[in-house]
């Protein structure tokens, strides 16, 4: 990552061509941590070469696990060399992994210390469900100025937990805790995102006994040991949706490879409802294009199978080009619209409100968070300079710059490169005029 670089994009041309999705960031990191639970090495393939994977590899290495890059897309993780349970503070605020490590390592050590978690600043992103889960499994957790310390005096014991909200991270914590805990656990109101289901598949392959149900309950029978596995990271559904929005917003035509269509769920329906076109090609390939004039939409982000909060930003970008008034209600994070205000420099007409617009009242009702957006389109975009505030907003800005006529500059690309790999060559091959340039060389950056 380098703070002194920016993207220079000359927009106004349709983005056309083919792109392969990288492995899903939000599964790759969890799979790396799951590998620590095995008694033999795991091989992970289709691992994206992105900042968040590097950070997680550093965290694993810091406790003594051996992380070996076999090639650009494969990691071999040997948990048997793990030697300490103290994740050093320099990793403080890096990403979401430290809180997941707390439970994974607690099976191997009687005391584990991890630094505070980081990740995009899109809301409070509390971790109280994680800490409560560790306590329910028999651990004791202290919060210190520098992070969290979990202890246990005996092996963790299975339990019944109802999560207050189907949190992805807290569900992962419960899975890490439950698979090697003594006896049975039931996790109610669990998250069921595709990345969670994939983690369950990986843990099962390692020897875990986990039963899913028609609802949000997960039943786990703890086992004494798990073994290493070979796991291929599934294609990133957030990347796929981003490329779909880029194709449609720029009036282009893009075939995305390496994504399971079912993981895109309602996205494909909203996409077609507003005038996007899709064509299923061979297995794992979808063509995205525009089917005439774009229409507005009312969208509410939600936990799976709802419309993912991580699709919200590229889709909002698309809605700036739709004819009429669109509404987007963000119900997962209270503060994920900061980027939208900045879009006015490109020419977007948007308004934020603290009300729950367009759907049912959500957890953020009456809390003064600007978590609903009104988007008035279509507005022609003109080139501008923007600074990325968080990962997904970064991709939305790329779409904005691709639509805008003229040369835009996008700074803060270190946020984007934490989650999207090889952006410049992959997008340049689809006719997007994009370059990575040194900021000093650019006027006005
Ligand atoms: N929450 C709590 N307490 C907790 C845990 C969560 O109040 O202990 C709240 C959060 O504050 C938030 C909501 O529950 O309002 C959902 O949080 P969740 O735990 O589901 O999110 P996460 O595990 O921290 C992952 C992804 C996010 C994605 C969300 C929702 C990773 C590394 N991150 O975060 O991805 O938005 O699930 O699907 O898996 C991204 O990729 O850009 C990104 C932010």
Automatic annotation (TrEMBL):
The gene is murA_2. Belongs to the EPSP synthase family. MurA subfamily. It comes from the Bacteria. It is found in: Cytoplasm. This is UDP-N-acetylglucosamine 1-carboxyvinyltransferase. Keywords: Cell cycle, Cell division, Cell shape, Cell wall biogenesis/degradation, Cytoplasm, Peptidoglycan synthesis, Transferase. Pfam families: EPSP_synthase. Pathway: Cell wall biogenesis; peptidoglycan biosynthesis. Residues 10-426 form the Enolpyruvate transferase domain.
